[in-house]
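Dear Dr. H.,

I hope your travels went smoothly. While you were away I took the liberty of generating a structure for the chain from your last submission, since the lab meeting agenda had it listed for discussion. I wanted you to have the full record in hand beforehand rather than looking at slides cold. The sequence, exactly as received, is reproduced here:
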Amino acid sequence: MGAPTSPLSRPMAGSERVHGGHTWISTIDHNVWEPGESGWIMKPEVDPDTGETIYPPFNRPSGQHDAYNTGMRMTWTDGEVYEAKRDGVVHSPDEYADDWKLIEPESESEPDEDDEPDDDESESGEPATEAWEANVDYSNGDALTYEGELYFVIQDHTSQAHWPPNEVASLYERQ
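The corresponding predicted structure, in token form, is as follows:
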């Protein structure tokens, strides 16, 4: 049996750990539980072949400390992706549907007849992205750039100068 760990060496909220082939994010300070148990959420992954975000399966929260918060997404048992509509969601879509929004898969669109990029696409055919700015209302799913890196917004918010994308993993996901 190993020596007990100091509370100071335990993960803080937002810390990431790799466990069981997945990356987990601690939802509480000084987390004593093993990833996959109370106090952890699985980090979404990106399919290397398609670039599509794969959201983790629903993991029933054991309480407010690891509940789903506004904008957090998960994959339900039917394979559909749902997004929490408020903070503190502990029930599944089957138990309390009003807490969840079904996220429709992005559909493939037909190419324009004139073969010109749409207004929301760059010349490369990639989605157009704006440079990150403070004091801007961002919505979940928005793409933006910061210091030459591409980020996706993962929670609706108004950006703040002291919350840049490279420092706030709860609001932005670097691609």
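Two observations you may find useful: Residues 108-112, 117-122 have pLDDT under 50 and may be disordered. The chain has two domains: 10-103, 130-174.

With kind regards,
E. W.
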